[in-house]
């Protein structure tokens, strides 16, 4: 059979995680991410790994916290309401400087919302979600292939910077099937001298903790953590630039919205409208530089989102509000179609 | 051609697409046709997506009124039972994936077996990650059969790679399909192929498929 396989986005996440050396999965089913758990349930017992369906999302994230303390690669996955439940645990993991992967296959909200795709957890993913001063590295795939590739990258970055990372997808990417070339088995895990693995009476014991009794020490750890975040903001922003060379207008979109937008950009080009697209692949760190550069050249931006415009703040912060940003969106589980995006591009250009 | 056609198989094997195309094919033969959406597993990408297209050509579509909405319930439409009374209709059943999807058929198994005028197709795509070989596919086949309580009558080889499908890849997969046939004792009834590739696939019983359009 062929080298490539036909996978759902959710399955690709699970298989890529296993290939990245993740042998521990804790989760709780929720549409539209359940295939991640289902795949793990089938595969983990065969490879000597752990699949555990916890009694709740809160239990699952705390199990992740536990395994992360041992330095093993570990993950959980859920969808929007479930990810909200995990926020306390995520904050503890960040506060303990532990690497772990959290997958959010977003659905419409707020509240119980719906089961159709959405991108309305952008603020939660990129601005905190849980309490305290912390960040997640947030990666936003736009294809089944990237669901696999960015899962592996998310583990690597989490290990490298000793912090939790998040794969932020949506229901459509989770459910759609595309050919995918699975990454080779590789565990780029780094040395983890901090891990709780048993001292064998040969070293001082390690402590995993986010509680600090002295405020001076807690302050110091926060300052140190933010030094790391600064380094990440310098080194790790990732994005894709599409037809931007001579662009007079710039569409900004990530994930499924970027795929729809690309079709609109191609259609607009056919009509002679010079428009390009910048697709943030890392949502935190946000790719500020290419947007700031684009703001020097283009007349305006269109932010295409499956939310009420949560990314616009980051675009404006990147460009210093230099050029107008208009929103083209659907919400509550609906997806904009290329015609809607094209119409917005034209409207921005004063052509309609 | 039997009055009742059941399409079962592993998760994401292509059952819905084939069932929809098969219903259109029956209708094109001038037969009174009903399609029943019994997928209780997947709330995305369902028969419901083709409802208008099917109804426009006169295929009766039985699916839950809240399919494709935010109601995510593993329930089945009551109207499904009507196909066992309306014996002048040809009925196409789209069943959810894996054994967990096939359990719904257990409810209908007595009716199907009593009438004994059915095909129960096992749909397989050897490019799916958990059915890469005839052995793996056979394992799932047995799981599905145990859950549905209806014996399979044939295999449909739907091996594809989405947009990257090639005629060559499909032809190559035939050997695996024949091995599955040997293991299971079931004939390979159809090889389903995206319509534009159908002519290039030199295999017996090739069935051309129209795929659902998407804009991303």
Task: Walk me through this protein's architecture.
The complex is a heterodimer of chains A (352) and B (216). Chain A has helices spanning 9-19, 34-43, 57-69, 80-85, 87-95, 122-126, 144-161, 171-175, 215-235, 255-270, 288-297, 312-319, 338-348, and strands at 5-8, 24-27, 50-53, 74-78, 100-106, 137-139, 164-170, 177-180, 239-242, 249-252, 275-280, 282-284, 300-305, 325-329. Chain A is of the alpha/beta class and 352 residues long. Chain A folds into 2 domains: 5-235, Rossmann fold, CATH 3.40.50; 239-348, 3-Layer(aba) Sandwich (Rossmann fold), CATH 3.40.50. In chain A, strands 3-2-4-5-7-6-12 form a 7-stranded mixed sheet, sandwiched between helices. Chain A has a 5-stranded mixed sheet with strand order 9-11-10-13-14, with helices on both faces. In chain A, strands 1-8 form a two-stranded antiparallel ribbon. In chain A, strand 13, helix 12 (312-319) and strand 14 form a beta-alpha-beta unit. In chain A, helix 10 (255-270) crosses helix 13 (338-348) and helix 11 crosses helix 12. The termini of chain B are far apart. Chain B is an alpha/beta fold and 216 residues long. The mean pLDDT of chain B is 93. Chain B has an 8-stranded parallel sheet with strand order 3-2-4-1-5-6-7-8, with helices on both faces. Chain B is built from 5 helices and 8 strands; from the N terminus they run βαβαββαβαβαββ. Chain B has helices spanning 15-28, 51-56, 98-115, 134-148, 167-184, and strands spanning 4-9, 33-38, 60-62, 90-95, 118-124, 154-157, 188-194, 206-209. At the A-B interface, strand 1, helix 2, helix 8, strand 8 and helix 10 of A face helix 5 of B.
Write a short abstract of this structure.
Chain A has 352 residues and is α/β, with parallel strands linked by helices. Chain A folds into two domains: 5-235, 3-Layer(aba) Sandwich (Rossmann fold); 239-348, Rossmann fold.
């Amino acid at each position: 059979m062929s080298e490539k396989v036909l996978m759902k986005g959710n399955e690709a996440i699970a298989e890529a995680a296993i290939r990245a050396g993740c042998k521990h999965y804790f989760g709780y089913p929720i549409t539209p991410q359940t295939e991640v758990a289902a795949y793990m349930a089938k595969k983990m017992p065969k490879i000597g790994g752990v699949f555990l369906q916890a009694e709740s999302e809160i239990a699952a994230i705390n199990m992740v916290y536990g395994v992360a303390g041992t330095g093993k690669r570990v993950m959980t996955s859920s969808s929007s309401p479930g990810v909200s439940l995990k926020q306390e645990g995520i904050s503890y993991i960040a506060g303990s400087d532990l690497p772990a992967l959290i997958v959010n296959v977003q659905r419409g909200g707020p509240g119980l919302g719906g089961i159709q795709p959405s991108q309305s957890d952008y603020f939660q993913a990129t601005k905190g979600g849980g309490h305290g001063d912390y960040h997640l590295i947030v990666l936003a795939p736009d294809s089944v292939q990237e669901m696999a590739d960015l899962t592996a990258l998310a583990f690597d970055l989490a290990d490298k910077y000793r912090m939790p990372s998040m794969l932020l997808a949506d229901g459509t990417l989770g459910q759609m099937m595309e050919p995918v070339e699975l990454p080779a088995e590789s565990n780029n895990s780094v040395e983890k001298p901090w891990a709780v693995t048993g001292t064998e009476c040969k070293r001082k014991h390690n402590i995993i903790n986010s509680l600090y009794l002295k405020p001076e020490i807690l302050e110091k750890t926060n300052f140190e953590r933010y030094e790391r975040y600064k380094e990440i903001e310098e080194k790790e922003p990732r994005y894709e630039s599409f037809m931007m060379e001579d662009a007079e207008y710039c569409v900004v979109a990530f994930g499924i919205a970027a795929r729809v937008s690309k079709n609109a950009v191609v259609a607009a080009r056919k009509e002679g409208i010079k428009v390009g697209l910048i697709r943030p692949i890392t949502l935190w760190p946000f790719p500020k530089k290419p947007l700031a550069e684009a703001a020097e050249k283009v007349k305006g931006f269109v932010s295409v989102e499956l939310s009420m415009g949560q990314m616009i703040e980051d675009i404006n912060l990147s460009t210093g509000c230099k050029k107008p940003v208009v929103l083209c969106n659907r919400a509550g589980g609906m997806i904009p179609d290329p015609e809607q995006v094209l119409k917005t591009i034209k409207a921005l250009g004063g052509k309609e | 051609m039997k009055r009742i056609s059941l399409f079962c198989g592993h998760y994401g094997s292509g059952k819905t697409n084939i069932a929809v195309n098969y219903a259109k094919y029956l209708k094109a033969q001038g037969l009174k046709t009903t399609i029943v959406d019994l997928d209780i597993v997947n709330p995305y990408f369902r028969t419901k997506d083709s409802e208008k297209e099917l109804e426009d050509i006169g295929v009766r579509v039985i699916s839950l009124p809240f399919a494709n909405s935010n109601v995510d319930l593993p329930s089945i439409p009551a109207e499904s039972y009507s196909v066992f009374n309306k014996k002048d209709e040809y009925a196409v059943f789209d069943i959810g994936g894996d054994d967990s999807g096939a359990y719904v058929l257990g409810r209908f198994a007595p009716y199907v077996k009593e009438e004994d005028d059915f095909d129960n197709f096992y749909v397989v795509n050897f490019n799916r990650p958990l059915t890469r070989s005839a052995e793996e596919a056979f394992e799932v086949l047995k799981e599905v059969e145990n859950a549905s309580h209806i014996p399979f009558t044939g295999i449909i080889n739907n091996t594809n790679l989405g947009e990257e499908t090639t005629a060559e890849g499909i032809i190559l997969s035939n050997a695996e399909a024949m091995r599955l046939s040997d293991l299971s004792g079931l004939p390979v009834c159809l090889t389903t192929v995206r319509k534009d590739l159908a002519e290039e696939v030199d295999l017996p019983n090739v069935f051309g498929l129209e795929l659902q359009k998407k804009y991303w």
